[in-house]
Specification:
The protein is built from four helices and 14 strands. It has 201 residues and is mainly beta. This is Flavin reductase (DIM6/NTAB) family NADH-FMN oxidoreductase RutF.
């Protein structure tokens, strides 16, 4: 089949998220200007550069108690910092609990019973015990076409790696089995890997 997005796909469910999959999940922690912590997952997330290390995530909807966006973007606009955790299989239920559309003053760490720890280079909390956490300073927020679409870019200023995930000097994903987002309500877990050398390596 072929369809133009503006004309509609004619299917029972939008296939776009299932096409661009699997996607890593960025578990984004922020703090508002009053010092309240927020934690929310975003599956439009990825690394975008090595030197300096940089990441991005996109927020694609709005809450009624925020001006055209969600808590994460609003907090980052105010403070200029955020932290990204990598979600392991064991944290599936906790991650999902933090996706609830809670009021802006809600502390999702407390809501989901998640232990927190302070960041080192920014004024923000992180998920204690996450396989990896990336402390970030905002570089830019890009307004995208659409009612509430924003891409947030940040430079990584500090990286936490859980010791048991380091094997022979490598960050070993099979030690924690990262969770990935597919389409619809589907998710996947990375349990197996293989090595592939590029031509010329």
């Amino acid at each position: 089949m072929f369809y133009r997005p503006e004309a509609g796909h004619g299917l029972p469910h939008n296939p776009f998220g299932a096409i661009v999959a699997p996607r890593p999940i960025g578990w984004i922690s922020t703090r508002d200007s009053a010092g309240r912590d927020n934690l929310a997952p975003y599956s439009f997330f990825n690394a975008v550069a090595y030197e300096p290390p940089q990441v991005m995530f996109a927020s694609t909807s709005a809450k009624p108690d925020r001006d055209g966006t969600k808590d994460s973007v609003a907090n980052i606009r105010d403070t200029g910092v955020f932290c990204v955790m990598i979600v392991e299989e064991a944290a599936t239920d906790a991650m999902n609990a933090t996706s609830a559309p809670a009021p802006r003053e809600t502390d999702e760490f407390a809501l989901a019973g998640i232990a927190r720890a302070p960041c080192e280079t920014i004024d923000c909390s992180r998920v204690a015990g996450a396989p990896a956490a990336l402390e970030c300073r905002l570089t830019r927020i890009v307004t995208l076409p659409g009612a509430a679409n924003f891409a947030v870019f940040g430079e990584v200023t500090g990286i936490h790696l859980r010791d048991d995930c380091l094997v022979d000097g490598r960050f070993e994903v099979t030690r924690f089995r990262p969770l990935a987002r597919l389409g619809y309500r589907d998710y996947a877990v990375v349990r197996d890997t293989f090595e592939l050398r590029r031509p010329g390596d």
